[in-house]
Write a structure and sequence with these properties.
Blueprint: E1 7-11, H1 17-26, E2 32-36, H2 48-63, E3 72-75, H3 78-91, E4 96-97, H4 100-110, E5 115-120, H5 122-127, H6 129-135, E6 142-147, H7 150-156, H8 163-177, E7 183-186, H9 195-202, E8 207-209, H10 211-225, E9 239-242, H11 246-256, E10 267-269
Parallel strand pairs: 1-2, 1-3, 2-9, 3-4, 5-6, 5-7, 7-8, 9-10
Bound molecules: D-glutamic acid.
Length: 276
C-alpha cells in the first residue's frame, strides 16, 4: 500500500540527521530512507546548477524507476532547499518538503522585536531565500544573514563542542551580536549540532530556531492532508545510504539518534550516477 511506503530524506551529509531525529519523534511509526551525499559534501559553496544536478540524481535514487519507492521526500538541507527545491518538486510524483519555509515560519513565531538573524552556508545566504520568505509574510521584519561555512566542517569532523568551534563561532557571530536580534535561525541542518557553542556566544537573549521541528510538523500535515500516514504502529526498519564513509556516518548517527541503533548492515554506500 502507498501509505506504507517509506519517507525519503536527504542532505549533503550528516546534517540531515537533525531533521530525521525530529521526524522520528513526531512520526515514530513512519519508515525512513535517508541519503547523505558524504562524498560530495559540502553543497554550501557550490553553484545552483551543480546542486540541482546532485538533487536530481538523489531524487532518482530515492524514487527508483517506475512506481515511486517513497511516498514523500524531505529535503533536509537548507542549501538544496534554497537552490533546488522548486525544480525538483516540479518534477516529482510525490510531495517534496524543504526546510526553509518551515524555518522561516518558526523564526517569525519566535521573534518578539522583529529582528531575525539567519546563519547558513554561503549559497543559502547568497540566495537571499530566508530574507525573501520572511519578508513575504508582510510584517516588516529585519533579517540579518551571515554565512558560516566552517561550521559544516567542524560538525563533519566531530568537533562541535571544542575550543576551536567556540573560537570560530566568536568570529562569525560577532557582527550579528550588534544587530539587536532576538532570534537566530540555524539555517543549515548541520548547525543544530553546534547549538551549545552558538548559544554560548549569542547569550540567553537570543532564541535559537531549529527549522527541523517545524519541518517535521509540516511533513505530518502533508501526510495527513494527502491521506498518506502509515497504517502500522510497529517499530519501522529505517535504511541509510551514503556516497562515502559509511562507518563514520554510522557512528555519528548512533551518537545523535536516540531511538535507533544502526548496525553495519543498516548503512550502505551507493555511487551517484553522473548523468541526469
Ligand atoms: N546541511 C546543509 C544545509 O542545510 C549543507 C551543508 C553543506 O553541504 O554545505 O545547508
Amino acid at each position: 500500500m502507498k501509505n506504507d511506503l517509506p519517507i525519503g530524506v536527504f542532505d549533503s551529509g550528516i546534517g540531515g540527521l537533525t531533521v530525521v531525529k525530529e521526524i522520528m519523534k513526531r512520526l515514530p511509526h513512519e519508515r525512513i530512507i535517508y541519503f547523505g551525499d558524504t562524498a560530495r559534501v559540502p553543497y554550501g559553496n557550490k553553484s545552483r546548477d551543480t546542486v540541482i544536478t546532485y538533487c536530481r540524481q538523489i531524487m532518482r535514487f530515492l524514487l527508483g524507476d517506475g512506481e515511486p519507492k517513497v511516498k514523500a521526500v524531505v529535503v533536509a538541507c537548507n542549501t538544496a532547499s534554497a537552490l533546488a527545491l522548486d525544480t525538483i518538486a516540479k518534477d516529482s510524483p510525490v510531495p517534496v518538503t524543504g526546510v526553509v519555509g518551515p524555518g522561516a515560519k518558526a523564526a517569525i513565531e519566535a521573534t518578539k522585536n522583529g529582528r531575525i538573524g539567519v546563519i547558513a552556508t554561503e549559497s543559502t545566504i547568497k540566495s537571499g531565500i530566508y530574507n525573501k520568505v520572511i519578508s513575504e509574510s508582510g510584517r516588516g521584519f529585519e533579517v540579518y544573514g551571515k554565512a558560516c561555512p566552517l561550521f559544516v566542517h567542524l560538525v563533519e569532523e566531530g568537533w562541535a563542542d571544542t575550543k576551536i568551534a567556540a573560537e570560530v563561532a566568536e568570529v562569525y557571530l560577532d557582527e550579528l551580536k550588534n544587530k539587536g536580534i532576538d532570534s537566530l535561525v540555524l539555517g543549515c541542518t548541520h548547525y543544530p549540532l553546534l547549538k551549545k557553542t552558538i548559544g554560548n556566544v549569542m547569550g540567553d537573549g537570543v532564541t535559537l530556531v531549529n527549522p527541523a521541528l517545524e519541518t517535521a510538523k509540516s511533513l505530518e500535515e502533508t501526510l495527513l492532508k494527502l491521506g498518506l500516514c502509515c497504517s502500522g504502529n510497529g517499530i519501522p526498519e529505517h535504511r541509510f545510504y551514503v556516497s562515502d564513509g559509511e562507518e563514520k556516518f554510522r557512528d555519528f548517527a548512533n551518537s545523535i539518534l536516540d531511538s535507533v541503533h544502526l548496525e553495519t548492515a543498516d548503512v550502505t554506500r551507493v555511487v551517484m550516477g553522473a548523468e541526469v
